[in-house]
Amino acid sequence: MIIDLHCDTILRLWEDGGSLLSNGFHVDLERLVSSGYLAECFAIFTPEENSRGLTRFETMRSLHDLFVTEMDRCKDIVTVCRDASEIESGRLNVILTIEGMAATEGLDDRIEEVFSWHPAIMSLTWNEVNVYASPQSTDEATMRSGLTRKGFELVERAAEKGIAIDVSHLSDKGFQDLMSIDAKVLATHSNCRAVASSTRNLTDEMLRALAEKGGVAGLNLCIPFLHDFSLDDPARCSRVDDMVLHLRHMIDVGGEDLPALGTDFDGIGGRLEIDGAGDMPILIERLEKEFGTAVTEKITFKNALRFLS
Fold first, then answer.
1. Domain hosting residue 181, numbered range
2. How large is the angle between the packed helices 149-160 and 172-179, nearest 10 degrees?
3. How many CB atoms lie within 10 A of CB 223?
4. Considering just the CA atoms, what is the radius of gyration of the chain in Å?
5. Which phi-psi region, left, alpha or beta, contains residue 272 (left: φ > 0; alpha: ψ -120 to 50)?
């Protein structure tokens, strides 16, 4: 079984059209079922600009409307869940997450509207500074800037709703801020900075802190987060070998209860050895050879299921 903590398929559908049931993207419901998924987390990521003339929050609302429409259209196949208690064995379960709250601009009515959608997971920012926090960045000053007052307030309000906080795009200082307070924290789609140097990845200190807090880190299949290829390297590819290296490092640093899956499907490009949900059995077969069945099951679904409980 598989629980994937992050994909960007809703935005792909919103931009390019098509059906969540079957499409030419990385993720559709037919392939999730055929590959043995227990649950998929569908993120609402709201780009700053769009071709429809909508404000950013109007775009966010439109993306959620599309999610609701697709879930209703496919209700014979999927169960929409708020947390692990609602996950049904033998069904394809869908969990809503929010990637970035910039569109709410700190406004109470917008925040409450997003909360009314019942997301299980929420991140404060994407790759831009906003009213809540600063993001991961190659700029040292940005990395030293953490949560704002509004950011701390939003985390507190989210905790009251049972919403976990995703650190995958958060600055290093923002990560430290979250570790210092009572918050349920995970990284839905981040790898190991000791293996691939992107600032989007987690340091060993972060991995240990997440593990100590009961969090998980979802393996991201994006090329630069797996390996330090140069842009013109002909071998540049998202490789299973590198996925294994990151998972092994997570286990070595944070233990077997830390690693999970956060593919970032439909938000990544380039050459991918695991080129969509239909290829996930290939990854699972390799993981079983590398780690054995018990640890592979922790990576592919049990750790995420435990965190969501």
1. 2-308
2. 50
3. 22
4. 18
5. beta
Tokens 């709703």 locate to 161
Q: Count the residues in the chain.
A: 309
Contact in structure between 23 and 59 (CB atoms under 8 Å) = no
Contacts of 37 (CB under 8 A, 6+ apart): 1, 2, 3, 4, 92, 277, 280
Residue type, position 294, single letter: A
241: which 2 tokens? 């070998």
Going by the DSSP 8-state scheme, the letter that residue 8 receives in this structure is -
Rama region for 249: left / alpha / beta (φ>0; ψ in -120 to 50; rest): alpha
pLDDT tens per residue, range 111-156: 999 999 999 999 999 999 999 999 999 999 999 999 999 999 999 9
| pLDDT of amino acid 132 | 98
Residue type, 148: T
In the DSSP assignment, the letter for residue 220 is P
- Are the beta carbons of 142 and 169 closer than 8 angstroms? no
Residues of the chain predicted below pLDDT 70: none
CB 227: neighbour CB atoms within 10 A? 22
| Maximum separation of any 2 CA atoms in the chain, in Å | 51
CATH assignment of the domain containing 217: 3.20.20.140
Chain centroid offset of residue 221 CA:
11
DSSP state of 134: -
The total of structural domains in the chain comes to 1
pLDDT (0 to 100) of residue 5:
98
